[in-house]
Amino acid sequence: MSQTNTFLNQVWTDVSDAMRRMFELQPMTMDTMMKLYNDIDNYFKSSERDNLILRAAANKSNTANKLKQIDNQAKGKEVDKSNESEEKDNQTNDEEVDKIIPGGELYFYLKNFLKQYLTTIRANGNNFVDEDFFRFYVKTWEKYQFVCQVISKLFTSINNNWIDHQRKSKNHNIYDVYTMSMKVWQDIFSKETKLIAQTYLELIKKERDGEKVETSLIRQVVQCYVSAGFTEDERKDKKHQISISPLLSTYIEYFEKPFIKETEQYYLHESNNYLEKNSINSYIKKASERLDQEEKRVRYYLHPTTLEKLLPKLVKILIIRHLDQIQKEAMKLLKLLRDEKIEGEATKLLRNEKIEDLRIAHGLVTRIKDAEKPIQKKLENYTYETGIYAINSIKATVSKEPKSYVEAIFEVHERFSRIVKDAFCDEPGYRAAFDNACGKFINDNAVTKAPGSSSAKLAELLAKYCDTLLRKGTKADQSDNDKKIDQIMVVFNYIHDKDVFQRHYGKMLAKRLVQQLSASDDSEALEACGFEYSSKLQRMFLDIRISTQLLGKFKTYCGIEKYHVIDNFSVMVLHKNAWQFRSSPAFNLPHQLQPTYSLFTEFYTKKHSGRKLELIHEHSKGELQTLYTKQKYILQVSTYQMAILLLFNDVESMTVESICDITQIKSELCRPILLVLIKSQVLKCSEITVNEELKESDIENDYTIEVDENFKSKKIKINLNQTVKSVEQKDAENDGQAIEEKRKMLIEAAIVRTIKARKQLDNNSLIKEIIPQLTSRFQPEIPMIKKCIELLIKKEYLERDPKDKSLYTYLP
Prior knowledge:
Elements: H1 6-23, H2 30-44, H3 47-58, H4 60-75, H5 83-100, H6 105-124, H7 130-154, H8 156-168, H9 177-189, H10 193-208, H11 215-228, E1 231-234, E2 242-245, H12 249-277, H13 280-301, H14 305-318, H15 323-339, H16 344-365, H17 373-394, H18 402-423, H19 428-443, H20 456-470, H21 478-492, H22 498-514, H23 521-524, H24 531-561, H25 594-607, E3 621-625, E4 634-638, H26 639-647, E5 653-655, H27 656-663, H28 667-679, E6 683-684, E7 704-707, E8 717-719, H29 725-758, E9 760-762, H30 763-774, H31 782-794, E10 798-800, E11 807-810
Parallel strand pairs: 4-8
Antiparallel strand pairs: 1-2, 3-4, 5-7, 6-7, 9-11, 10-11
Helix pairs in contact: 1-2, 4-5, 6-9, 7-9, 7-11, 10-12, 12-14, 13-14, 13-16, 15-16, 15-17, 17-18, 17-19, 18-19, 18-20, 18-21, 20-21, 20-22, 22-24, 29-30, 29-31
């Protein structure tokens, strides 16, 4: 160091003293640090440094040539030089650069100081071996890195000025202060790398074998090598900025490659030995455990990039080599779960254990592309077979007890759905296989294949089960009912004929609401059926609420006007489009009801001019009291039954023909109504013997009907309002026709919508595009689609191409 550079000597003396104190972990005040920072900054602005640079400028050409010579010498060093020779060359180069690059004196003083410090420290570490050397290495590194980070901030002026200028001048021997300190570390400790790597592999093997090791040491040593590595990325932009990023070459060469090789050998040996002594089920658990351990190991104390290189090799050794056995074990577990019946806590525990075993096997198989497909196929087959068996077991009782049908389906769904969720982590491939199997056995089974039945039968059974659950008087509590409704919705999602379910459910809901038998409005709202259908149901609920308000206003009106109405009179005004009620045949309303009906009609038309009221007699009802019996009974009857019974207030007997003429009830409807009244012994006919085999056709027009004055019953209130079978059959026929017409309309709309968007499509493409649009409601049949296409051609919505008959064009 030149004695003439007074300010430089003073600054370096203070800096070197501060560095010694920091390496000795002595405290440094903020004032001291700020003084050092300012002194370094002031030196770079001083006249002393300017004079050095001016003298150097006079000898610029010679300096440039000398720098080039030094750079070439550094690049041309022989590879087999000893570390001592390299250090000597580096020191010589630094000293020469120090002499010929004025202004960088502090930089080179710092570099030489760090070299001397680390050389001394390294010599002190020669007495340590294995983990003790690791501790020494980590402790030295942490202290060195911390001090260098502090120094880098103190030398900010050098980084931003002199070093930046040198980099722009293509002087690649100059780095920023922190990077230079990392390079010094590499140079001093490079010969220890192989020893450290060997110790590191030995520690990992000990840990794999179950011995306790200080894993934090391994992580810290690896982090040292990652942090100390660097590479330069010179960005050729306007600012000529230089960025220094981590370089993993040392880590990869001395740590990663040996680690991966050692890992392969270790697990190749272990997997072979383990399978010789243990079952495949036990091996699956062991392999899964080992994979988890290695992933955690890499994430904890190796660089993240190592994992993507290591995993494929582990998968090949631990899984692919034994894949066939693993797949067979997974399918074996799946079969055991299929056949197992859950009875008691012990069985549940065993089942949970099998599910956990299957989950572990799945975790291995899913690491290999397409390896899970055989298991998915087996899952689909087992689900289908179990579903078919369950339905075959209860097919005889389905028509009388739809509950058993739904519960059988749901039990199978619940069992295998849990397997998909818990064992296969609900992955899409397994869920799709499971859903496909459910769709098959739910829509195509012994019940739907029975004579006179179809897949639509399932939809009807579902609706009937809903009706049973949602009626008032159900013994189950609300939470249990909600659970069963959820089960129904699970089955609903799989049925093909969703529109059939919606129609039957809508009709049954209408009856429940009109008869005031709905247990809960909240349970009735089926969002799973879609927004359009749910909106229609909401319209029905709204009609009921509005009718309640309307009835209250009517009674208030009658009270004010002093009008007399029938006791407990109630009425519902329903929008025809929202309710699936067909128009009732006209008949003569009993004169006892006529005044009240006329009064309400007048009241309503005043409030809503232009609207027309139409009575739905089939769903109207009332109560009559018997005055001719000793015990007074209350008969709950339909409007038709009421009209017939009230006739006998004026006469003792009437022929069937007379009853039809006076009431204007059609004969085919009147006979079933009379049959109910005769069988219940409210009315009697001397020409008829009442028994279970009595049919409506046994009642002739000239038979005389009269009141049975000996009528007796254990109940005071007797419900005679029963569904007429002939009417029910006609409704079923109408439902079938309505569903068919609705489907045709939807198919035609889908065809027009698609062909309008595409302008032109061939037959196969058109069918392929419209089917997905309709499957949310029903499964369209190809013949029906073709028939609808022909109808639309006749209606001139589209036309066939003259040259290609399979090509359709939209007609605007």
